[in-house]
Amino acid sequence: MSLSSVPAFNFSQLPSNLIPGDANPPWMSKGDNAWQLVAATLVGLQSVPGLIILYGGAVKKKWAVNSAFMVLYAFACVLLCWVCWGYRMSFGDKLIPIWGKVDVALEQDYLFQQAFLGLFPNATMVFFQFVFAAITLILIAGALLGRMNFYAWMLFVPLWLTFSYTFGAYTIWSTNGWLSLKGIIDYSGGYVIHLSSGVAGFTAAYWVGPRSTKDRERFPPNNILLMLAGAGLLWMGWTGFNGGDPYAASIDASLAVLNTHVAAATSLLTWLILDVIFFGKPSVIGAVQGMITGLVAITPAAGVVQGWAAIVIGLCSGSIPWFTMMVVHKKSELLQKVDDTMAVFHTHAVAGSLGGILTGLFANPRLCYLFYGYYNKYYGLFYGIHDGQIHKGLRQIGLQLLGVLFVVVVNVVMTSFICLLVQLIVPLRMSEEDMEIGDEAAHGEEAYAIWGQGDRLEKSAGFSAYNDDTAGAARSAGYNTSRSQVEMV
């Protein structure tokens, strides 16, 4: 039969809500587009407000505002950089095999075109990928809480996004990237997001230096319930984190969501049991750490492994990072020297690399086909041995290890370069005096103004420009307010 004899499809026979139009091109799936926007919003909620209140509740009271504000600033800054140059450097035309060309993602003609993958427009993909880029910077912040100069953080965020994140995203996720073309598996960011943020956070913490001695010795959470609320948003938001990466409302998305939560629950319970066995008490902070390591470890594997493998990954992620944090850390001079406030190295670098390696063992060829669309290109080692394709399995595990090496090298080198560059402009650390004060020195604001604790006139701290009553009272009382101290005129 010739093409000319095939009758043209009559779109008018479709229900009115499915008829293509100027705002609904024939290539777009309304269902996929809707799910992708929802998934992106869920990931965004992990950061704002999720990590805002997790960090704000997990630190000392005097650092609650500063920690939360580092998250809020990073989220806003990354978005502007992302649409102006970051997205196209990560997913646009190839400049070199590990980096894309600089270009904007702001013009109508570009944003309304079909995305490089998925049945939805570039505008949706730009937003979806933005929330991933943003949370990566926010996770790095977790290693730096309680001492980084906020002005240095303002410079660090756009520089790191430009000269580190875009390398990893293009190399591993772009359809033209070096490791992507070779066949590395990183379903939703075990390498690009978690291993990157863990290594970069640890490296930046080395250059910034430790918290004050007093803070390192005792750093109790100011609000554990608030921290748990943030952790809950982080966990539930992971539905969009892993469920959105097939770029379709597909059966693979459903599998990824279920595997994500199974692994997280298994990891949380494993960590909890180890705490009870070795320390005698169930720790809620430990449970949150176990939850996070489970979510991180399943991320590179979520839609390409079976449910039993998700449980195995959860068992590993609840025990191996626990061991590195509770045992190895205490015996390692380097790990003790570097002050990683939220243990990002263990929860993200260790768990992310662990997840990537386990993906190389458990990746199911059938599920990889559903996700990638290629037969027999992606092969977990255990399936390779079972199917007589051991060379494919060995190749896959080799690629997973190569990915770990690539991400570690790029992030150590580029993060060190960026920290040294920023240090030429502003100090990386707050002054010792300001670290003693905390939020009021950095921002002139405090998290909780409880009766008897809200009278700032008796404290050697600055004032917020937005606290008119306090500032006005200070002026009428004869005080000269500055950033770090209050002096009587």
UniProtKB/TrEMBL annotation:
Subcellular location: Cell membrane; Membrane
Domain of life: Eukaryota
Alphabetical list of InterPro entries matching this protein: Ammonium/urea_transptr (IPR029020), Ammonium_transpt (IPR001905), Ammonium_transpt_CS (IPR018047), NH4_transpt_AmtB-like_dom (IPR024041), RhesusRHD (IPR002229)
Topology of this chain in the membrane: Multi-pass membrane protein
Protein name: Ammonium transporter
Keyword GTP-binding found: no
Similarity comment: Belongs to the ammonia transporter channel (TC 1.A.11.2) family.
Domain Ammonium transporter AmtB-like: 34-448
Source organism (scientific name): Datura stramonium
High-level lineage: Eukaryota, Viridiplantae, Streptophyta, Embryophyta, Tracheophyta
A matching Pfam family: Ammonium_transp
PROSITE patterns: AMMONIUM_TRANSP (PS01219)
Keywords carried by this UniProt record: Ammonia transport, Membrane, Transmembrane, Transmembrane helix, Transport
Membrane-crossing residue ranges in chain numbering: 34-56, 68-88, 126-145, 152-171, 191-209, 221-241, 284-302, 308-328, 349-372, 401-426
